[in-house]
């Protein structure tokens, strides 16, 4: 069956990592495998001042970063690979989290010299919580790094996930000899600037220089211990997000990248069924359907167009087809569509479950919207809202512009670019974000699209806790622990810090504080 075959070919994933762990370097190597680029250093010229065409927005150009996740696709060994980029660090925003709702697996890159770093723990945890299969690549083995066992322990502790090392490094840094590829029963020899070589374990004795090396012998013993004491490999557990296969290597060398990618592509899940409010839709359900997980404005400053990123979940998408917007019941012709590649925006003619397409947005879409073909109507599960951590009070610089100000904020909230809270009883406007960049994009868009200059005043990082309506007593709160309402008119308190929160709990044990965003 054609539809099923197409679906089975798709591998849609995101690469997540702490900045500088090597995501760009790895992405480049994968694009080289896919023949999408010819030489490394073309994806993102961060330091060279060259900007890739994925940096659409003006603000991106100014900062030389990619604000919104771009999508890259290529054919590889009979598979259709879709890589979704997830920005980290200061360009981190809710888009980063939302991108995770559109993938079927993730590759987590960890710098062997640093281990898991604080800033990205939350991102990894969101994957774990959503049950997304996680494949780990521990990078920079050509440098002196932490002990492999220590790195595995950390992953297990922080993510509460089993690890299974697919390979095991023999030495590190200057003493790096290669990796014992447990899964394929071979040794991958590190040859410095030369290409790596593959030696079956049964023939290792012939590689005398390695075989007789004490580090090699020690590692073989270590691995034997690991075979006995460690967890067994289980693809079922990997696919359930309970075990992560761990690969060691170097994205830069490159070393171990080919084996990693081939194994990953084999194991990573094809698009699966997706939940709607009432049922589960299989990817080979004949009618086209998908949901919007991101809306990007101003990709082309001349046209001020908006592009909605849609993840196809079932059926076959064909350019020019009509689909119904489930929320309104309106029929929309999907004429202008784009597929994203790092270096160009090609027109997409057809797409299947797992593919990401960009549809032209005349202003009708919202994040989380479902588009469907056919008679049946359904709505994919709402996208989760992610915990804002930073809060700023916002006002219009010019009070005469109150109307545009409100309209702009309303639309940007609807679009999911920011989260809005209202002070109580003051009704002041407070916007929440997960990353600083969201504020910059907000300010920029308010000025460019709504012609309003906004003033932002930080009220710092805060801890949000929701209240039960019957327990709301405004006299208990002040600037320190600020009482506000969310967009559903639910009350919450923005606690100044952990100390203030604990103090309040101590003082008012009778009040229930609800953490809507608990990530465990
Ligand atoms: P990111 O996208 O996750 O932020 O990381 P990126 O790939 O840009 O890599 C960050 C730095 O780490 C780069 O060096 C890159 O060359 C280096 N790097 C990546 N993989 C490896 C590896 O396997 N081994 C070693 N030794 N280094 C690696 P940079 O000097 O900061 O940038 P550049 O001037 O080389 O671009």
Automatic annotation (TrEMBL):
<comment type="function">
    <text>Increases the formation of ribosomal termination complexes and stimulates activities of RF-1 and RF-2. It binds guanine nucleotides and has strong preference for UGA stop codons. It may interact directly with the ribosome. The stimulation of RF-1 and RF-2 is significantly reduced by GTP and GDP, but not by GMP.</text>
</comment>
<dbReference type="InterPro" id="IPR031157">
    <property type="entry name" value="G_TR_CS"/>
</dbReference>
<dbReference type="GO" id="GO:0006449">
    <property type="term" value="P:regulation of translational termination"/>
</dbReference>
<dbReference type="Pfam" id="PF00009">
    <property type="entry name" value="GTP_EFTU"/>
</dbReference>
<dbReference type="GO" id="GO:0003924">
    <property type="term" value="F:GTPase activity"/>
</dbReference>
<comment type="similarity">
    <text>Belongs to the TRAFAC class translation factor GTPase superfamily. Classic translation factor GTPase family. PrfC subfamily.</text>
</comment>
<dbReference type="InterPro" id="IPR027417">
    <property type="entry name" value="P-loop_NTPase"/>
</dbReference>
<keyword id="KW-0342">GTP-binding</keyword>
<keyword id="KW-0648">Protein biosynthesis</keyword>
<dbReference type="InterPro" id="IPR035647">
    <property type="entry name" value="EFG_III/V"/>
</dbReference>
<dbReference type="InterPro" id="IPR038467">
    <property type="entry name" value="RF3_dom_3_sf"/>
</dbReference>
<dbReference type="InterPro" id="IPR004548">
    <property type="entry name" value="PrfC"/>
</dbReference>
<feature type="binding site">
    <location>
        <begin position="17"/>
        <end position="24"/>
    </location>
    <ligand>
        <name>GTP</name>
    </ligand>
</feature>
<dbReference type="GO" id="GO:0005525">
    <property type="term" value="F:GTP binding"/>
</dbReference>
<dbReference type="InterPro" id="IPR041732">
    <property type="entry name" value="RF3_GTP-bd"/>
</dbReference>
<protein>
    <recommendedName>
        <fullName>Peptide chain release factor 3</fullName>
    </recommendedName>
</protein>
<dbReference type="GO" id="GO:0016150">
    <property type="term" value="F:translation release factor activity, codon nonspecific"/>
</dbReference>
<dbReference type="InterPro" id="IPR009000">
    <property type="entry name" value="Transl_B-barrel_sf"/>
</dbReference>
<dbReference type="InterPro" id="IPR053905">
    <property type="entry name" value="EF-G-like_DII"/>
</dbReference>
<feature type="binding site">
    <location>
        <begin position="85"/>
        <end position="89"/>
    </location>
    <ligand>
        <name>GTP</name>
    </ligand>
</feature>
<dbReference type="Pfam" id="PF16658">
    <property type="entry name" value="RF3_C"/>
</dbReference>
<dbReference type="Pfam" id="PF22042">
    <property type="entry name" value="EF-G_D2"/>
</dbReference>
<dbReference type="GO" id="GO:0016149">
    <property type="term" value="F:translation release factor activity, codon specific"/>
</dbReference>
<feature type="domain" description="Tr-type G">
    <location>
        <begin position="8"/>
        <end position="274"/>
    </location>
</feature>
<dbReference type="InterPro" id="IPR005225">
    <property type="entry name" value="Small_GTP-bd"/>
</dbReference>
<dbReference type="InterPro" id="IPR000795">
    <property type="entry name" value="T_Tr_GTP-bd_dom"/>
</dbReference>
<dbReference type="InterPro" id="IPR032090">
    <property type="entry name" value="RF3_C"/>
</dbReference>
<keyword id="KW-0963">Cytoplasm</keyword>
<dbReference type="GO" id="GO:0005829">
    <property type="term" value="C:cytosol"/>
</dbReference>
<feature type="binding site">
    <location>
        <begin position="139"/>
        <end position="142"/>
    </location>
    <ligand>
        <name>GTP</name>
    </ligand>
</feature>
<keyword id="KW-0547">Nucleotide-binding</keyword>
